[in-house]
């Protein structure tokens, strides 16, 4: 089990980085042809996912794609022609919008069907993996939502000295904002849907994972997304320094 965890967690990103380098090499051989450049990025991304999830490699496709995206945003984009960048941006913007919308729709439909079926059969979901327990799942989900903020703050605070040495650095107010403004959404729900579709996972475990991932994504969208602007104003991060005022 531990070996499988490390294989899925680390080999997946390595595969994504390898495909990022491959896509970058192809892009450097294409000049001012937005059709080919868009197709190379789409086909390369799909092949990365397919090899990760549906071959003997069998690693995390989500992590592979995330690593591929990180590499392309930092290094690979230098291979994109200036004339093709506009078309590439619009195509991938639309693909991303459609994919994210589908993930939320599917997660909502599946979760709704599960909740409806549990109401019909008088079943409950709880975290000790026993039938008929009387724990309040809504309370547990909200506690997990709060704990995730603490974990996020702790990790950012731990690496704060390193972040201060990179780029423009971060103030403590920015650390607070980064800890609060992180939304959980498409990637987490995609992973939950993969677990939900797996025949190897216990049906009860599938339901618990989808319930918690979907609920936490909902809480971040309802609470964090709607109040981050107020937090920015409260922390006075929009106020310009004297140097900025003079320069502007």
Order of helix and strand elements from N to C terminus: HHHHHHHHHH
Tally of individual helices: 10
Q: Tell me the number of structural domains.
A: 2
Mean pLDDT: 83
Low-confidence stretches: 121-125, 127-134
Strand content: under 5%
DSSP strand tally: 0
Q: How far is the N terminus from the C terminus? A: 57 Å
Q: Classify the secondary structure makeup into a structural class.
A: mainly alpha
Shape category: globular
**Major sheet: size, sense and barrel closure?**
none
Please describe the structure with a list of short key phrases separated by commas or semicolons.
10 helices; 248 residues; mainly alpha
Describe this structure in words.
The chain is mainly α. The chain has 2 domains: 1-80, no CATH class; 110-248, no CATH class. It is built from 10 helices and no strands. The protein has helices spanning 2-28, 34-54, 61-74, 82-121, 137-158, 160-164, 172-181, 186-197, 203-234, 242-247. Helix 1 runs antiparallel to helix 2 and helix 5 packs antiparallel against helix 7 (172-181).
